[in-house]
Amino acid sequence: MTKNLSACIICGSENRKVLRKKIRYGIRRKVLQCVRCSLIFLEPLAGVSAAYYRSNKYRALHGPDLKKQSSPREIFNTYLPFQKPIIQKLEPILRPNMKVLDVGCSTGHFLEALRGRVKTRVGIELDEAAVKFIKRNLNFKVYSEPIERVNMAEGPFDLITALQVLEHVPDPFGFLSGIAKNLKPNGYLYLELPNVSDVLLTVFKVKEYEDFYYREPHVYYYSKDTLGALLKMAGFEGKPGNVQRYNFLNHLNWILAGKPQSNFNVGNAQPVLVSAGSASAAIKDDFNEFIRGTDSKYKQLVGKYNLGENLTFLGRKKL
Ligand SMILES: [Zn+2]
Which InterPro entries match (predicted)? Predict the structure, then answer.
């Protein structure tokens, strides 16, 4: 049976409205929304090809530093310190005898952070430079075939993770069934991906953020509800959650100045209000404690209303 290409993948409706006609860097591309189930997607739905990720085109435009292209080593060094909260989230299910697969593992920073915590770590990555970096520097196996087609001697796995990957996938059901096929019965799936209910879009409605937000090569933009529906249909049990990792000062920067902080680190680290040399250490500490406390309350508030910049999902394959 050939599926009607224009039907919504979740609810089957062909009724959609145009939200925007331009995405990041002024690229002309329609952002559409299904009128029935609210799923948001970019046109064309085919997305970009695997070759796009294999070449350096993706990293040239979408690295941790917006001002320059980062090398695999720089990407690895930038993201490694920020894997801790992800591992903390997985803590309750981690076991020393586990086999873990990370799909779309980039330079392997998450799997590196898992070192010593599980028995077997395996990555899948299409970006050739990242694969080369892992093979040279890290101590786990990496495959460069899509999950739908790859044959892995190490499988099936107890836990499969896909961090900032699902939004790139033009055929989420094919992708999720590739994951299910490589999971043990009752195995765990953990996802992180952008949340289209992001507080900067839905509460503060920062125009510059919206211009920056939708970008090639993303295909789908999920909310808690559309992600929940997709995973249920794909045979996974669990509930989507959300998390806010960019800090309060990063959001103030967007709201007041209408632009991002150019470096991933500044936006994601503990916020610092006073760093200049003239104030005494006691004064700096007091002010910085205030902004850290505010940041923590802000993140709780954002999370309470499911407005965090990332969706999370920890669930299991139905038997
Ligand atoms: Zn729909």
Answer: SAM-dependent_MTases_sf
